[in-house]
Amino acid sequence: MTTLTADEQKLIVATQAGLPIVARPFAEIAARLxxxxxDVVDGFDRLRKRGVLRRIAAAPNHYALGLTxxxxxxxxxxxxxxxxxxxxxxxxxxxxxCYRRPRALPDWPYNLFAMVHGHSRDEVEAKRKRxxxxxxxxxxxxDILYSTxxxxxxxxxxxxxxx
Amino acid sequence: xxxxxxxxxxxxxxxxxxIINRLQDDLPLVPEPFALISSQLGCSTEALLxxxxxxxxxxxxxxxxxxxxxxxxxxxxxxxxxxxPEICFDEIAEIVNGFDQVAHNYARxxxxxxxxxxxxxxxxxxxxxxxxxxxxxxITVLLFPKExxxxxxxxxxx
Lengths: 163, 158
Fold this sequence. Notes:
The complex is a heterodimer.
Chain A: H1 6-15, H2 25-33, H3 37-49, E1 53-60, E2 69-77, H4 82-90, E3 95-100, E4 112-118, H5 121-135, E5 139-153
Antiparallel strand pairs in A: 2-4, 2-5, 3-4
Chain B: H1 3-7, H2 14-23, H3 33-41, H4 45-58, E1 61-68, E2 76-82, H5 89-97, E3 102-108, E4 114-120, H6 124-137, E5 142-144, E6 148-149
Antiparallel strand pairs in B: 2-4, 2-5, 3-4
Helix pairs in contact in B: 3-4
């Protein structure tokens, strides 16, 4: 964790809803904050180097792109091998997120989560099979949870008062 | 964002797809980043900006901007799940969504049928929010904090 300066906090609050879609977006943010363009660019650069800023990018709507099948695949993987196997699963081009998480026994025996998107459930099932092949005998049980509805989707909101 | 926009496939031409694919990568930190990208894509900067606005308003892109890491700022994220009786699912969804700390919430076909992400400004905020949701709904909230993150290949091909 890292402490934010007051200026960094202001930069984050000013941009967390999105970047202005203009030819000089950093200049526009600078004008709003009454600082100069180079300060904004340098500020982002420092935040990126410290890992606070992951990237400046677009978030696609998977449904609009035709990726209507979204399966959260979950796996009960031997603790001795889960880190090594998780890295392998996370590197698959069709896995968008991959995490090790705690089990919640007895109802939830799964410790590896990998999100798989596809144009159809058949496509997702085929991808899930590839994951199962990689995990092999280290996997004791698995399941897949398809999303049926998006109930809410917003980002993290840092309050302007700071936190 | 309306449900209608979220769940309908949008007609995209090859330039739209190229733009969506390119914009999922990090924006260069230069004064005119879109000029750089438009020259790579072979269109004018004006055309690129117009297309981005259109993709955002049509809902093909949900947002464009910085992705901050909550944990690096001292905040926290946590995936949570609840087993909600079908009969009161919408009612419970409304209560859960009413919490500002709930960043995303998805219905999934499983005994644990509601999966949401809590995003809070402090680590302690996660347990507090989960307790408040339990009190408001009467349903146990299971917490699945990430213990290890493997490579996040967030990109999808448009």
